[in-house]
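Morning - heme C inputs below, output right after.
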Amino acid sequence: MTTRYSGSIRQVSRSRRAWAVACVVLAACGGAAPSSDPSAATSLLPVIPPPAAAAAGRAATAQPGTAGAAAVAPSSTGAVPPPTAATAATTPPATASTATSAETDKLWCGVKKTLDARCTACHNPQKTAGAPMSLKTHADLIAPAVSDPTKKVYEVVGTRTHDQQRPMPPQGVLDAPELGPLDSWIAAGAPAGSDPTCAANGPEVQPTEQVWPENCDATYKVYAANGAAPNSIGAGAETHPQFMVTPPWGNEEAQAIAWRALTDNAKVLHHWILYGPTGEFLFGWAPGKDNNEPLPSDTGMYLPSGTMRMDVHYNNVTGSSMEMDKSGVEICVLERANFRPKTASVTNRLASRLINIPARAVDYDVTGTCAHSGAPVNLLSVSPHAHRTAKHMKFTVEKANGMTIVMHDKDFNFEEQTTYALDPPIVVESGDKVITTCTFTNDTDRTITFGENTGNEMCFNFAITEPMNGLSCGGFGL
Ligand code: HEC
């Protein structure tokens, strides 16, 4: 039995707005925003994708016969699948010639909303993270495509939003309620409607401004670079350099109360992750996510005393010249005397290390269970982490009373690994089980096992827990 996240309606609408903002700024929401759920009025759980929409999303992208499977199997041929029957069912026949202008306006302005929510964090005039073109205006969409000028941009949008090997957005295919209207609009020849700017859509949701704390004992800048030299990223290159980082706050643990990105060359920076000494996720950046989610005012984030590692992903695939970058992160740190009363940290216990994915296995589930006993623990956020074979992640809490809370249920993409805030936090009580399920599709002829290399696999939910290390289950959830 699945329960809804409890909380007052007021909290929920706040959360729903936060969710929408997160979707805009992270451009990383595999699930439908709750507000697009027809049953949203009765849905109290912003972190549960609406079941109908989620199921429809899968049906629209799954291979025939796998609709409803736990994850979307990419086409083994690598071919771009044509829209499936399920997609067609949600797509009204092209009505360009007969559509009234009001219908056209509604169609294009709905599509524009989707592009603004899911694409323009990268596809903007600054061309963030290596995106080759802007998708901000109607004129952008009817311009010649960068990769093939005989086609229009909207035509390649139609191809890439159905491309399961190289999906756009990179996080994974759009949900059916977004994809259906986009397909109809493309099939109708990308009409602009009476107001191409869609003023009626209202102002675009802006990411919430971060309030930088005034009471930092120190502010440290950590760069993903060796010394003073910036990184160079050659024309046409995609690179994943790693840098060891000595904690600038010294060899005493500290508390962080805020961080913000120091983005140098947004054209090529795709994402970065800062890991702690035991490989735990500390902070991560993706286009649009320039700072941390707000922490509760009585809570600080644990900062380690050992050597950290910063992994960066650069994308200059569509660039015609070498690019330089020296990006990093600025961290607001408290010394021990001024610590906030509660310390949160990213847990490495929500995981499975028992990974044995047979050759060519499709939609292969690996599950780790953390049975908690002891004082309640707050989960403040979830963050999926795995390598290239992982296709889907589902995190749930099975309450001692038999209810199940779904915290996260989304397709997974190695290139986009983000943190999703849980607002309000989910409380794990004694007797509850926190379940981490990763679904893998192994395209190779070898068994894939647990390991640090990208050729091996992992299955983690790097959740922020408070109190830190509060979960009582054995290491790595075994
Ligand atoms: C996280 C950044 C990011 C987001 C979000 C994103 N893209 Fe992209 N997009 C890229 C990058 C980088 C490329 C170039 C590399 C490639 O083709 O994969 C690209 C390429 C494309 C191309 C190929 C252009 C061509 O000329 O071949 C299309 C089409 C596209 N994106 C559409 C979209 C759409 C539609 C969305 C939203 C539904 C979206 N993208 C969201 C980063 C992003």
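Note: Residues 1-98 have pLDDT under 50 and may be disordered.

O.
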